[in-house]
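Batch job 17 of 40 flagged for manual review because the log was empty.
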Amino acid sequence: GLKMLKYCKLTPYTLKKIIRHFCVDIDASKTAILLSLNRNTINKYYTLFRQLIYAQRQRELRALSGAVEVDESYFGPRRPRGNDVVSKRGRGTHKQPVFGILERNGKVYTEIVPDCKKKTLQSIILGKVALETVIHSDGWRGYNGLVDVGYNKHFRVNHSQEYSLGRGQHINGIESFWSFTKRRLAKFNGVQRYFDLHLKECEWRWNRNERELEVELWNLLKNKC
């Protein structure tokens, strides 16, 4: 992928145009038409951008602290029969579960998981969230026992009583991120291919303006050339 940058025939001006279209979220087909370039060329660059973003997100992993919201969500079409996957909280769907941790006033971290059982979620939380952190979650049993492993500030949100809870006791942030991500991915027909790259791209885009994204992506490319 990076060799393509070193030996590509595109001028820096054209490359910046491609970056601009990517950052304002114009898909590859429309970008190819607007810039009068080959669709395969745009696809290669878009995939390269996503690979660089994915690698950056992985490098940036650190212990989340302060106050975080944890939640899980489900993506994709119904899975084929015979696939041994835990269904969505017993509701009979077989979609891909994704676990998310949102640091209030900070970044969001997501991980594709095999299931949303207590052992799976607790392992990720222990690896990513400092023990002194205030954790907000809903009542899903997968979050049982966090106090027992050292998280003394774990607050649960009962959605039916949410408006009577104390200030700050909600998981609106991570729920907004899920909505944002599902709206984006719907434009790509669910992106079953490269789902992991698209998921990290949504983390990267979350709560950031187009100019910030452009500058960061251009710097990522320059550093890798």
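Reviewer: the log was empty due to a logging misconfiguration, but the result itself is present. The longest strand covers residues 67-75. Unflagging and moving on to job 18.
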